[in-house]
Amino acid sequence: MKHRLIIFILFLPAFFLISFAAFAYKDVNSSLSGAITDAKTNEPLTGVTVYLPDMKTGAVTDINGRFKVGHLPSGNFTVTVSFLGYKTISAQVFIKGATQHNFEMDVSTIEQNEVVVTGVSKATQINRSPIPIIAINKRYILQNLHTNIIDAIANVPGVSALTTGPNVSKPFIHGLGYNRVLTLYDGMRQEEQQWGDEHGIGVDEYSIDHVEVIEGPASLEYGSGALAGVINLIPTPPAPDGKIIGNVMGEYQTNNGLIGGSAMLSGNRNGFYWLGRLSHKSAKNYRDKIDGWVYGTNYKENDATADFGFNGGWGYSHWDLTLYDDLQAIPDGSRDSVS
């Protein structure tokens, strides 16, 4: 693990050199600003999140319901506007120079799933996609007991998981799996599960914000590995512009004594954003009432994530660095029926 961590750290200077070289290029920054109000009362809404998935940046409205997202290149972007108790808005906005765009939000008592998919070349609204897509939000993931991210979505219609060892689950869509299901992490291919039966998806489950599942053949867009469908794991987005945010989470499971936790800190200022996360998870051998202790089912997982990027009128530069270290036992069928 030490060698992996050294390689992980050595990538950071290269990132800064490339990004600052790009940042030195001068251009006129575009921006998106406006006001968000209640559609019925016309009152300004405070604390609304405005997010541009393609740029990985956004803002939060102030006490007057106003927002501003700066350091943007010119172009047509998908903008999502979300607030608890209101319908999520997704709109295509052409941004060039100081662009003004206001939004009106309607009250909704029904919680909505994600309305935008990002596992394609450009963020797309779900209702405009010709392929069936299911968006799974963070609340669903947290409310379903699991030991890895694939187990968390195994109860979604059409999706199942093949468990081949502790902390190892392989996704299946409509009965097809392995090299017929493409797994992505923020749009990047994940091939670890193809190495062998004891290899799962090498992704920190705590870092996932939501999941997009494409059910059905998607080979024309994603390649031959997407014959059955695609599972795109979307990580936590960075902080809104001008903010620093963080969170700490933990969990405990009684059957195998699993103890897990994760800490995240993120900031965004003047077009530069960063996000860091450290996670740990460990479990003992599990126990059932018939066989007693089942040996070889313990594991230990350590994860690290670093996400950096610059946004400006010249364009953008985004870097994602991840470390996934999973030390797991291999079950050999031995039991302790005496216990």
Descriptive terms for the model:
Aspartate Aminotransferase, domain 1, 339 residues, mainly beta, 5-stranded mixed beta sheet, elongated, 2 domains, Ferric Hydroxamate Uptake Protein, Chain A, domain 1, 11% helix, 5-stranded antiparallel beta sheet
Q: Percent helix among the residues?
A: 10-25%
Content-based structural category = mainly beta
CATH superfamily assignment of the largest domain?
Answer: TonB-dependent receptor, plug domain
CATH topology of the largest domain: Ferric Hydroxamate Uptake Protein, Chain A, domain 1
Q: What number of structural domains do the residues give?
A: 2
Description of the structure:
With 339 residues, the chain is mainly beta. The protein has 2 domains: 2-24 and 240-336, Alpha-Beta Complex (Aspartate Aminotransferase, domain 1); 113-235, Ferric Hydroxamate Uptake Protein, Chain A, domain 1 (Beta Complex). 11% of the residues lie in helices and 47% in strands. It contains 4 helices and 26 strands. It has helices at residues 2-23, 138-143, 149-152, 219-222, and strands spanning 30-38, 49-52, 57-60, 66-72, 75-82, 89-95, 98-100, 103-105, 116-117, 124-125, 133-136, 159-165, 168-173, 176-177, 181-185, 188-190, 208-215, 229-235, 244-253, 258-269, 272-283, 287-288, 292-294, 299-312, 315-328, 335-336. The strands form 7 sheets. Strands 11-17-18-15-16 form a 5-stranded mixed sheet. A 5-stranded antiparallel sheet has the order 19-20-21-24-25, with helices on one face. A hairpin with a 4-residue loop joins strand 19 and strand 20. 32% of the residues are buried. Mean pLDDT is 80; it is low at 15-27.
